[in-house]
Design a protein that fits this description.
Strand content: 15-25%
Distance between the termini: 21 Å
Radius of gyration: 21 Å
Structural class: alpha/beta
Number of helices: 13
Strand order of the largest sheet: 2-1-3-4-5-11-10
Helix content: 40-55%
Mean pLDDT: 91
Low-confidence stretches: 1-29
Largest sheet: 7 strands, mixed
Oligomer: single chain
Order of helices and strands: HEHEHEHEEHEHEHEHHEHEEEHHH
Length: about 350
């Protein structure tokens, strides 16, 4: 188990004990489920972003095991960015009578009907990472508006006193993802009035190739020599943006933001191609989703919730929001390496070895 998972285990140890003790102390008819034989349906949205299957899936499985004395089971489905497929996956799990669902929605609105079917079947639902619509019972994510603030501040830091010397491009996420709207809102709060936003896009499906096409259009519109920076809402799109900048012969590459601390993005930061990413500690978020799921399956109260969040369809959803961290070349060692997300060896492949040496990464 790496350092990130170890810290996550420590963070939920006390609540795990409380869950186990409460479950053991439950009585028939009390509304509290005694058995550890719990089936959790886990539905993740896509597999292009590395985080879902590298971090979220294994952490959730591990936490479910801890919380059920290794008797609980996770049934996993990945929608591969297909909202219709994900709705079918939810409905299949409802038909198979799982005890609880953890759902990271491809499309927060489109999933609402399937969430209602789960609710009508008596199956509680934890909205994970994205706040799905419908009768949600619990929600865990990051402070998504703060993500946008962090990204916007990073871009302003990179631009410094040159913030008014040209135009920036904003490459927002998909309109089907409610988080994208929050990222955008936070970023605009930081950037509006401080920079000239030349072009802005809502990028279909978050796909890097769509970001590349959008960036090519922005370059044609603004001009090669007028773009001073790019707000990119995540790392996959940042890669697409940087590919377009390189193809247009724009050097040096202007500051580009990102999110998710993907390995390729961290390597681009080391090489000076991407200015920053946002590191979201996935283990605490995934652990919170697992704990909420088990508490709901056992008919117990969500005492771990820190706050309430409203969705367009449901008010006062018990929620856990995890803070985020801006990562630049100056703090790679103190964030993703220290937390065991990546080793220095994974980052500092031969292509990046010299740049890593300059940063003291080894």
């Amino acid at each position: 188990m790496n350092a990130l998972l170890r810290r996550s285990a420590v963070a939920v140890a006390a609540s795990t004990m409380a869950v186990s003790l409460a479950a053991c102390g439950g009585e028939e008819g009390s509304g509290v489920r005694i058995s550890d034989d719990i089936t959790v349906g886990l539905l993740l949205p896509e597999n292009e972003a590395a985080r879902y299957e590298k971090f979220d899936l294994p952490v959730i499985k591990e936490k479910i095991g801890q919380l059920t004395n290794d008797k609980g089971k996770v049934v996993y489905a990945n929608a591969k960015q297909d909202a219709t497929l994900q709705s079918r996956q939810v409905e299949t799990m409802v038909a198979d009578k799982v005890d609880v669902l953890i759902v990271d929605a491809v499309d927060s609105k489109a999933i609402a009907g399937s969430i209602k079917k789960a609710h009508d079947a008596g199956i509680p639902v934890v909205a994970f990472d994205r706040l799905a619509e419908g009768p949600i019972d619990a929600y865990t994510s990051f402070d998504n508006e703060e993500v946008g603030h962090v990204q916007g501040k990073a871009l302003l830091t990179a631009l410094g006193d040159k913030a008014k010397d040209g135009r920036i491009v904003m490459m927002n996420g998909a309109v089907t993802d409610p988080n994208a709207a929050m990222f955008k809102k936070g970023a605009h709060t930081e950037l509006d009035g401080k920079v000239d936003i030349g072009e802005e896009y809502d990028t279909k499906d978050w796909k890097p190739e769509n970001a590349t096409a959008n960036m090519e259009a922005a370059i044609d519109s603004i001009g090669n020599d007028k773009i001073i920076g790019v707000y990119s809402a995540n790392d996959g799109m940042a890669g697409g943006v940087i590919a377009a900048l390189k193809s247009a012969g724009i050097f040096p590459i202007p500051p580009v933001t990102g999110q998710d601390a993907e390995l390729a993005a961290v390597q681009r930061i080391v090489a000076g191609e991407q200015f920053a990413t946002v590191y979201k500690p996935y283990a605490p978020e995934a652990a919170a989703a697992a704990e909420m799921a088990i508490l709901l399956a056992r008919g117990m109260e969500l005492g771990m919730a820190q706050t309430d969040v409203d969705s367009p369809t449901t008010k006062a959803i018990p929620s856990v929001l995890v803070p985020v961290i801006s990562v630049t070349k100056e703090n790679i060692g103190e964030t993703v390496i220290k937390d065991g997300v990546y080793t220095a060896a994974e980052i500092c492949t031969p292509k990046y070895k010299a740049a890593c040496a300059q940063l003291g990464l080894k």
